[in-house]
């Protein structure tokens, strides 16, 4: 058992920041939280055994990245000036082919990626992998060894536009998938249940590269084996137009017909979020992976985050490596708030222009109707919820510190005994225990300018992994 004493911070609901100062948290041998209590209500013997956190330090649940193309970490930050389809052909598909063809490269790449995730505070990630079985198993092993909760998606795509990278038929795709599922079971079965950090996820890449027959088979398999599902949906106008022209249906209808929209489904992007689509997503229990950085590069519209949250859509954040070049979910938090503020500014300008009798200079595009009195802003505490509790919920993980939850935590130190850490400068650090007002202000400053230097510890399932 391990026992820690210090400040606990989490987000029990959207927009709520909970600060529990001077608490004692106990973790059992299986890495599960057995008790949480104020130090004032803790026995002297337990207090004596507790390890105190450094001053000006707090524990926060780790981030969850709901959309990350693992092989594309090979080319992160490259060629983002190109249009999406050109970028995929020039960078993405070649990177994935290289990883599938070279197990040594896959091991080097994925070992580094797992370590970088922990450095960035990401304790759980939903990965798009490659087509090949072996490379995805290397990714799973790298996550398991490092201590990252890895949700591993072997790509399914039987209608690839690239002759050298794809699967020839639905039957071949399903055979490869079953081989992957069996291999994942072999990898994790020797471990105790609480030690199993990786699991497979059904991953049809997106509608344009998957036949209806393959999608229907994946839907049936997901139901039969209670598997998670991930894909891309309603990302850009040209992609949606292509689907409608070739299938005669919208993206979401193709997925829904194949029974691939479920409470265990995560769909990335969904930037074209109409009222009807909101209703369908909520009815099916789907979670949206909001990827603000890659949306800015490759989508035709900004995801209407404020409206989606107000409508009760389940949402988490994704880095979308390598369509987004920044691996830390902390960057996605900041970008989510930034994009929402820009949308609010554009709306106000359009309202002002319309009131002056002219045509609006900026139109927000298709989507949910926006009553003039409603703000489109999202604040930092809401983005912190999405990065932690919101994303973790989509993966079936608790998003707060509570009894019976696995002890997953990142330790954030705002300042050391010798002064500030990283980029945060404090000129009025309290000598004694600070109150909630100081903590809230300090946490916001970390949210704005903190970096990896402030992350002084990470635990996953009770195991210290950094």
UniProtKB/TrEMBL annotation:
GO molecular function (one): guanine deaminase activity
GO CC annotation, single: cytosol
Key words of the record: Hydrolase, Metal-binding, Zinc
GO BP: any one term: guanine metabolic process
Domain Amidohydrolase-related: from-to ranges: 58-347
Cited Pfam families: Amidohydro_1
Cofactor dependence: Zn(2+)
InterPro entries hit by this protein: Amidohydro-rel, Metal-dep_hydrolase_composite, Metal_Hydrolase, Metallo-dep_hydrolases
Cross-referenced SUPFAM superfamilies: Composite domain of metallo-dependent hydrolases, Metallo-dependent hydrolases
Protein name in UniProt: Putative hydrolase
Upper lineage: Eukaryota, Fungi, Dikarya, Basidiomycota, Agaricomycotina
